[in-house]
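Ticket #4471: structure output looks truncated?

Reporter: J.K.
Steps to reproduce: submitted the chain below (325 residues) through the standard prediction queue, then opened the result file.
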Amino acid sequence: MCASCGCQGGLNKGEVSQGEAMTTVLNLQTGAMTPIAPAGERDSDADGFHEHVHADGTRHSHSHDHFVPYHHDGNSVSPDEASHHHAHLHRHDDSHDHDDPVRHIVDIETRILAKNDALAAKNRAWFAGREILALNLVSSPGSGKTMLLERTIASLASELSLFVIEGDQATANDGERIRVAGAPVVQVNTGTGCHLDAEMVARGLSELRPGPGAVVFIENVGNLVCPALFDLGERAKTVIFSTTEGEDKPLKYPHMFRAAALVILNKIDLLPHLDFSVPRAIANVRQVNPEVTVLQVSARTGEGLEDWYAWIRSQALAARQFAFV
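Returned output as attached by the reporter:
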């Protein structure tokens, strides 16, 4: 089960692993690693209490003072402040209420999404106050997101200040690729989680500390389902859709394509070797999202990437102008 949203994408049937469930943020510049509790174990109420439900229905509540990488004025906290004492108090519900478990799970998921949206709004305000462009890159596994970022860093690092939050369930392989490409990067490993959430991004920002006017690329976990539900505070979602996936992918995952401001059709260099119709694929994208911009690129050969770079520049300019609206 996904440690963040409760979906079944994280583990095979019968697997339960606390080690895999731990989410961590690794700063690849400093080597510092910070653990993050699963979303279901973070604060869910205004008073800082959250609740566990045992197999017999017994409810057990805890109080946590969690790290939040912002002061009330919107500024990020210092590393010393980030290592503050973590108080762990206990509160028990003597009534041991036995609610319907399905109803209770729905309630928990609703609170998780509500809390995520609240923190995403704080992230968005933090970005806007610093004129930072934040882009959430989403796709299926193997679409070419990381290679696209490597090419982008090589081409734009001399004119834009680029930072990356790299999301995967495990390993720092992609984060290392981004570091070698030349951009500051933090690796967020979600364990059993199938997506990044707003708190993970906030923790990543507290490590990256991007300056005013920067561009922050958030490479989400490879998944076209749950990332559509979780706002990270980004200015726009960019879906990377490769020619190896089949033209009907937008119809199979309409929520993600509907949420996108940009769809990048990647791996067009492979078209001579594939039974793939570009017009049909684009028509399917338009059926789901008539207004979305679609670009055709090859991250491997560089074909079409100038259009992608021009889009980034236009969005970065819009982010700077938006700060004064």
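Triage note (M.O.): checked the attachment and the full token line is present. The chain has a mean pLDDT of 81.
Status: closed, working as intended.
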